[in-house]
């Protein structure tokens, strides 16, 4: 009886917390009046991506945000043109140390990695750090017609001679990749829009991968809750 009660509370709390781990898209503001059209909370490493994509010119402007695991850490965001893997990723890496500039890396193997040109013309590589997060900004020119990408992201603890050291091999580090449809994602409502003029209606498209992930975990939490509730009553009576 007491065990089932404990069980009930444990799972209820677990399901409550599991859906509130990731950084949320709202409540973000970037310096220099930088704004983006779309946002997606990524399902691993508490990361978030904001972007503006212009399909007519294939230009992508992005801000990737994640908490680096240490004060001397790094964060990376990449497009892999071929598959959802680290190898082959065309990566952008930013460092918590402001003296090290963000750079591009063509990831051809496991460590060590070194800066190199990548498949996509890249400009405006910048980084910005707060007490809790590091953000990487970049503009990429994608091949015409590419709107759905394989995105791979990562964080690491340390840097040696200006180069990122190998990341952890925890489940979160190994699962941090997903498809991203650049024409979808959560619409960002900027602080500049006045409350009286309604924000443009979000497109009637399906939610992003991260959005549906969140929805799924909410549904799962509800279902779990009812199963536990039901079991709890069976134990009681
Ligand atoms: C941001 O926008 C405001 C209002 O448009 C302007 O006064 C300010 O100079 C801008 N700041 C930067 C850094 O561009
Ligand atoms: C993500 O955030 C949660 C809650 O703040 C924290 O418990 C967890 O360790 C973080 N995960 C990573 C990989 O930083
Ligand atoms: C990245 O590395 C691969 C494998 O070595 C090579 O084929 C490709 O040309 C490189 N890309 C660029 C932009 O240098």
TrEMBL record:
GO terms for cellular component: membrane. The keyword DNA damage does not apply. Residues 1-22 form the signal peptide. Residues 45-156 form the DOMON domain. It is found in: Membrane. The chain crosses the membrane at residues 219-236. This is Auxin-induced in root cultures protein 12-like. It comes from Dioscorea cayennensis subsp. rotundata (White Guinea yam).
């Amino acid at each position: 009886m007491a065990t089932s009660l404990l069980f009930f509370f444990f799972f209820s709390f677990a399901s409550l917390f599991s859906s509130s781990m990731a950084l949320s898209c709202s409540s973000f503001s970037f310096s220099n009046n930088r704004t983006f059209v779309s946002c997606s909370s990524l399902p691993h490493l508490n990361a978030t991506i904001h972007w503006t994509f212009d399909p007519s010119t294939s230009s992508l402007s992005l801000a990737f945000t994640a908490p680096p695991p240490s004060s001397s850490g790094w964060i990376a965001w990449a497009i892999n043109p071929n598959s959802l893997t680290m190898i082959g990723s065309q990566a952008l890496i930013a460092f918590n140390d402001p003296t090290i500039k963000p750079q591009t890396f063509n990831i051809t193997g496991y460590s060590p990695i070194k800066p190199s040109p990548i498949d996509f013309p890249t400009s405006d590589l910048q980084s910005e750090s707060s007490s809790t997060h590091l953000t990487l900004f970049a503009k990429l020119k994608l091949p015409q017609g590419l709107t759905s990408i394989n995105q791979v992201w990562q964080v690491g603890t340390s840097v040696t001679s200006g180069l990122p050291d190998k990341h952890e091999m925890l489940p979160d580090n190994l699962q941090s990749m997903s498809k991203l449809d650049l024409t979808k994602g959560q619409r960002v409502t900027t602080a500049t829009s006045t409350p009286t003029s309604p924000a443009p209606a979000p497109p009637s498209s399906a939610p992003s991968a991260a959005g549906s992930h969140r929805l799924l975990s909410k549904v799962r939490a509800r279902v779990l809750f009812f199963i536990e509730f039901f079991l709890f009553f069976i134990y009681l009576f």
